[in-house]
Amino acid sequence: MMRRASDHVTAVAVLVCFASFAAAQDIATFSDIQLIEETREAVVAQDAEAALELLSEMQRRRTGIFAGDKTGTCEEVIDLPEGITDWRFKGAARQAYITAAKTKALEAGTCGCLFDGFSFDNFTSEVLGKSASDVVNDDRGNLEAYLTQHQRENEAHYRDLETVCRSM
Question: pTM for this one?
């Protein structure tokens, strides 16, 4: 009788492990919406193990509550023409571009990547009135003037926006 009870316990354990393995395999095939729904159900059911697995998958996919989490994937891309020989130009261009992108984020009230939908070419067109491929060494003065005019006023406001974004 004792042997039979231990066989049942073993069978149940194997089934639970198999079900967990099968569920883990299925998580990868869930649509984003299905993943969010399953996560919500696991949280409501207070199934910590399932919720953790599902939330981990959501984070991996950057969906649901992790949709704005693009850590490491948001970078400015500054393609300067080969004719730029002023070694200080790239720094001025980068800082001015970041400042302009922060201004756009403040105007829109967005928390996403600063550079989504705002390329360096968009920036040079708006600030210098020319495409990035037409930028020359002499444009550094205009970039520095833009930076001087806008950077200080935007930094404090942008820090406030970042604080709000982190709290979401």
Answer: 0.57
